[in-house]
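Office hours follow-up: a student asked to see two folded examples consecutively, so here they are.
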Amino acid sequence: MTTATPERSPVPDVSGRLTVTRALSLLGGVPFLGWLLGGLAAVLAEYLFGLPLALALGLRRIPVLFGFEVMLKAPRYIPGTLVYLVLVYLIPAALVALATARVTDTLAARLLRSPALSMVVHLALLYASIHLWCGLSDYRYLVGRLALIAVMLTLSLNVVNGYMGEFSCSHPGFMALGAYTASVLTVLFFVEDDVFGAPLLPPALGPFFFPLALVAGGLVAALGALAVAIPSFRARGDYLGVITLAFTFVVKSLFENLEIVGGPRGFMNQPNWAGLPTVFAWTVVCIAVINNFVRSTLGKALNAVRDGEIAAEAMTVDTRRTKIVAFLFAAFWAGVAGGLFAHVVSYINPATFGVQKLAEVLAMVYFGGLNSVIGSIAGGLGLTLFSEALRPLEVWKWVIIPVLLVFVMANRPTGLIAFREFDVMKLLGPRRGRKEGSQNVSAQG
């Protein structure tokens, strides 16, 4: 009599899964300081060996925006471009970040004892990477500054559309007020111009005066925001959107009919004072101020107004004051961004601040994520760089980007990174010790 041998169930192959999990665990243990060192190493590798490597791979030059423009213009360069990205960016960044993980984790913990010093070290490494990356071509230098300005615009609009829950279309108007105000002040006082004549002050003083011109542009934009804030007491939703859109058209029409600033022809001769260090510094200040603002008591009042204005009033929230402060605060930073934009491109005209600019800023806000500082940073940087990378497609770019936005909105209506606080100290802190502590707690449980 024979006995049947029981069939063995197949043993699942988990080696691949464990390898991926282990790799993710190692990468997750790298602190932000380690990734900054890794990014700096990658940019240094490109700075030192980028051109010889590109030529050896059959490329004619260093890929400008991570190779997108090369691959879109000439698909035959796709293999070489991908190898270039892996050898220049991925491998050096990952190796340096993992190799220095223990050291940077300990260093991050020690630096955190002095938050100001920790912030300076992290920002210095971040700026060094951006400076080297942008320094390899004039096009990168321009796109890098425009991307940082886009972050400022996205953050400021998110204060109203995200944290307060209104739908404002007035940001191009605020941006225009700041751009024209700062431009008139710098040209009037420091540049010899056909309209304004000889400068009123020595041009050597201009760079020191420039921050004051930007602040003046922000203040004028904030004054213009009163025209939006006052009607907001009685209008909400679509009605407020119509009012704010009308404000943008009024501002645009105003500058089109002011011949002293060029009318529809535009205004030029802005001095080139908005270099990368200046734009980077203003972006950092904007992020820090807005992040503190939305985490403050007034920021919580904005969320209360968004969730229910009547309930907020019942909880003693001064909704009128909250709305005014939010609109003026957002308009100020939009005006500063407009002033920086004018001095980056050294030319502005009323058409620059029309419906297309409104669509760009709204797309960045809703793509990155509502009620999220980190989402606004991702939306501003991501869409700006992606839009420039698709420039070789010409008109098809304006088909791909809207389709992408529709896909994101259909699956994540509030954006990719929505309703997430930006805890700077948590970002700058160590990773390994925190992870081991959480593992010990779970093991004890």
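And the second, which I mentioned at the end of office hours:
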Amino acid sequence: MKVIQIHPGDNVAVALETVSRGETLESWGITALEEIQRGHKIALCDIAAGDDVVKYGCVIGHAKADIAAGAWVHVHNTKTGLSEGAEYAYHHKALPLPDTRPRTFRGFRRPDGRAAIRNELWIIPTVGCVNSIAQTLARENQDLVAGSVEGLYTFPHPFGCSQMGDDHAQTRKLLAALARHPNAGGVLVLGLGCENLTMDQFKAELGDWDERRVKFLICQEEADEIAAGSALLRELAAYAGAFRREEIPASELVVGMKCGGSDGLSGITANPTVGRFSDRLIALGGSTVLTEVPEMFGAEGILFDRCADEAVFRKAVAMVEDFKEYFTAHGQVVYENPSPGNKAGGITTLEDKSCGCVQKGGSAQIVDVLEYGGAVTKKGLNLLSGPGNDLVSATALTAAGAHLILFTTGRGTPFGAPAPTVKISTNTALYEKKGAWIDFNAGTVAQGESLDDAGERLLDFVLEIAGGRPTRSEQCGAREISIFKDGVVL
């Protein structure tokens, strides 16, 4: 099968492999009027100027000119139908979840009862001024990675000082959330001493902490901050080294879901595979988290109708409307998307991208909507406020408590969040080309594997990662954070 019509109501199909000019697609009785590259769309019938272009059973834009059956459908002849204003109504839908057998993974049990899938030491700088000190401490103390201590990492960032208002609060909230993450068996919080994110503020944001697990160091107060930091890291390593892996129910997993470098196959292979996984994990009693609010624009209704009740629906609408106001307050239109790479891969409009993006949410009920920096407290599918930017949103997913992140991509990317980041390719060619980046191939769906089989295979793989199998980004040492910023810098 060279092309796929995703929904019976679609008037375009997507090429699963390149279609040559003049090639006949017998199932639809049309001939390609030009070459249609993999991931790009071909018109299945004549589409008049101004008419809807339909994919996923949803309108993804309007024809800018007459489009003949067999023609390439893309940015040259299709435009978005989005605008800043929209009205939403709640029409609750509840869909069944798949039957699943009980599953476990070999993780770590923390004293507070939480589960973890890694047992690492993390150095959290409260301010960018101490990034170099944190990096030196991480580099010079790698001998502490031994036994059940699986890694020592720090997460440099440029913030923590010269910030005001919401930006200051978001930095404080995000860093404290990372310090609470269960994958960190020990945490060293590193400050300078004169920054406006004071250590007292950080401690207040952190709340109750275990003094065996979290240590604090203010560099200006030490004659030799490297020696002092190293001594604290040794104490943390001794504490973290006492943890051992044990069998833990899959119901305790929290998994973040993200896409980046998407292509025309993202919404056909990798994203719905993640959606099938999400439904299976939730059926087991686990939790998943979906973010990238701007990449919900145009497909919000698909999610809104699955909100568990009207209170959750109102929170979801407020999340989307707040992000639209964020765009317009900065003089930007809400539909300034997709990226050049997305377009090269076959995505034409933001609606096209969004309808593919939300496939990661599967069919489960949405149980909660989280603010940026918020944490998962309810079992099931959660929405998290965050931008589409890969590293910013992946950091927010980690801060929300995601043990690991599933990241689908049609073009590939090497980055990694603080939580293990599983890269899932939309096409087999990428999997074969970028073996050092990609963990899991969902391109097999385009070659005939069912989405249910792919989702089950992904569940098996996730449980292996949760049990200690390193991701490609972990093997490459890719661990980074990025914090959402909106206001001025002093």
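Two things to take away from it. The chain has a mean pLDDT of 95. The chain has three domains: 3-79, 120-242, 249-475.
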